[in-house]
Amino acid sequence: MSFEKDDQVVLNDEHSEFDGETGTVTQTMESMFGDVTYTVSFEDGQETGVPEDDLEAADADADEDDD
């Protein structure tokens, strides 16, 4: 699944300080080999060069819990 700018995603990377956190895709980058990586912005910072395999779509209901 590919992601677009402003998509809400969950990062699954045990080596990242943002593992398990929900963030927003702020940039997509495609290498000359056709691999796509993402920059994901979180409340406390950002992670760059994130491969698609480390991301999953965030639940749409997560933002609605503020009611």
What would you say this structure looks like, in words?
- This protein is mainly β and 67 residues long.
- Helix content is 0%, strand content 45%.
- It has strands spanning 8-11, 22-30, 36-42, 45-51, 55-57.
Write the layout of secondary structure elements.
Layout: E1 8-11, E2 22-30, E3 36-42, E4 45-51, E5 55-57
Antiparallel strand pairs: 1-2, 1-5, 2-3, 3-4
Distance N terminus to C terminus?
Answer: 30 Å
Percentage of residues in helical conformation: under 10%
What integer value in Å does the Rg equal?
A: 12 Å
Strand segment tally: 5
Give me the secondary-structure category. Answer: mainly beta
Average residue-wise pLDDT: 90
Strand content: 35-45%
Within the largest sheet, what's the order of strands?
Answer: 4-3-2-1-5
Number of domains: 1
Throw out a few tags for this protein.
67 residues; mainly beta; 5-stranded antiparallel beta sheet; 5 strands; globular; DUF1918 domain-containing protein
Give a concise summary.
The protein is mostly beta strands and 67 residues long. It has no helices and 5 strands.
